[in-house]
């Protein structure tokens, strides 16, 4: 059995409402130390860290300094030294967004997606080909992760938000996840826990590792679930919870299953939509 501690590592800084990783704009080196490298130094020294860009991580939605992100997280050096697969050269990748993939043991490949507006991410024809190639090769499990989920109950970021609509169009409506047998995906953006499920795919929103917000309303969940029953090709919301957390993923190779469990932070509990909601989700390969 292998155990993964998984959190998309978006939305880390609780103290600044307008930042997910970096404090202020993130365009200066000294803004990264107090908000990221210092508080998470023990974690960073012992746990591999792989980022996916969010809409506040290095600037703001209107314009950001992506090269600062590349530099401060040593991405170019890590790509070249660790055997990770950066899909294109650093310069070309940065103009098209931060996309990369990497293996984890013999059975997993993670695919990092840049869903930010500046990247024009999977809308580019070349990016679509790269995504198809990454999703269709190699191990038993292909696990994509990114910031903007294809489906979301809110309450801040709604089902119809432009970035969420773009993610849904290019990853879900065009069948990119389902056609390659991708069984699970992980997302941030909304600062709570949400689990969406279709018969062949489990979608997790886990955006509350350091900054957590309100839960969507019960009525909104019920309306979304009722509406999506009419569309069997879409996932339906199963549950949601509030409170800081990460996801623990336990892999059983004998049964080829991954059990996903939201684990609350020290001194916290997760407030579930229904008290009897299952605390574990078994994803079958």
Main sheet attributes: strand count, strand direction, barrel closure: 9 strands, mixed
Morphology call: globular
| SS element count, helices | 9
What is the radius of gyration computed over CA atoms, rounded to a whole number of angstroms?
18 Å
The figure for the number of domains is 1
Number of strands: 13
Looking at the overall shape, the CATH architecture is 4-Layer Sandwich
Mean pLDDT: 72
Could you characterize what this model shows?
The protein has one domain (8-241): Purple Acid Phosphatase, chain A, domain 2. The protein has helices spanning 33-37, 41-46, 66-72, 75-82, 90-96, 125-135, 162-173, 176-179, 218-228, and strands at 2-6, 85-86, 100-104, 108-112, 141-146, 184-187, 193-198, 201-206, 236-242, 245-252, 257-264, 271-272, 281-284. With 285 residues, the protein is an alpha+beta fold. It contains nine helices and 13 strands. A nine-stranded mixed β-sheet has the order 2-3-4-5-6-8-7-9-12. Strands 1-10-11-13 form a four-stranded antiparallel β-sheet, with no helix packed on it.
Chain-wise SSE layout:
Blueprint: E1 2-6, H1 33-37, H2 41-46, H3 66-72, H4 75-82, E2 85-86, H5 90-96, E3 100-104, E4 108-112, H6 125-135, E5 141-146, H7 162-173, H8 176-179, E6 184-187, E7 193-198, E8 201-206, H9 218-228, E9 236-242, E10 245-252, E11 257-264, E12 271-272, E13 281-284
Parallel strand pairs: 4-5, 5-6, 6-8
Antiparallel strand pairs: 1-10, 2-3, 3-4, 7-8, 7-9, 9-12, 10-11, 11-13
Descriptive labels:
25% helix, single chain, 9 helices, 13 strands, alpha+beta, 285 residues, four-stranded antiparallel beta sheet, nine-stranded mixed beta sheet, Purple Acid Phosphatase, chain A, domain 2
């Amino acid at each position: 059995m292998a155990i993964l501690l998984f959190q998309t590592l978006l939305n880390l800084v609780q103290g600044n409402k307008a930042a997910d990783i970096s404090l202020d704009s993130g365009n200066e080196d000294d803004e990264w130390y107090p908000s990221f490298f210092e508080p998470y130094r023990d974690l960073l020294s012992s746990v591999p860290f792989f980022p996916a860009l969010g809409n506040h991580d290095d600037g703001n939605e209107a314009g950001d300094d992506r090269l600062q992100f590349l530099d401060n997280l040593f991405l170019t050096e890590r790509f070249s030294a660790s055997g990770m697969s950066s899909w294109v050269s650093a310069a070309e990748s940065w103009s098209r967004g931060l996309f990369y993939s990497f293996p984890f043991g013999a059975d997993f490949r993670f695919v990092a997606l840049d869903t930010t507006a500046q990247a024009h991410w999977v809308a580019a024809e070349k990016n679509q080909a790269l995504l198809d190639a990454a999703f269709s090769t190699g191990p038993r499990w292909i696990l994509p992760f990114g910031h903007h989920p294809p489906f979301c109950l809110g309450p801040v970021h709604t089902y119809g938000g432009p970035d969420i609509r773009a993610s849904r169009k290019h990853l879900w409506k065009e069948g990119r996840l389902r056609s390659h047998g991708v069984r699970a995906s992980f997302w941030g953006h909304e600062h709570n826990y949400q689990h969406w499920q279709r018969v062949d795919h489990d979608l997790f929103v886990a955006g509350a590792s350091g900054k957590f917000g309100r839960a969507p309303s019960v009525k909104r969940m019920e309306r979304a679930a009722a509406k999506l029953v009419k569309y069997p090709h879409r996932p339906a919301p199963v549950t949601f919870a509030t409170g800081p957390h990460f996801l623990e993923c336990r892999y059983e190779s004998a049964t080829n299953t991954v059990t996903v469990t939201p684990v609350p932070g020290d001194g916290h509990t997760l407030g579930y939509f229904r008290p009897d909601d299952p605390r574990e989700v078994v994803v079958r390969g």
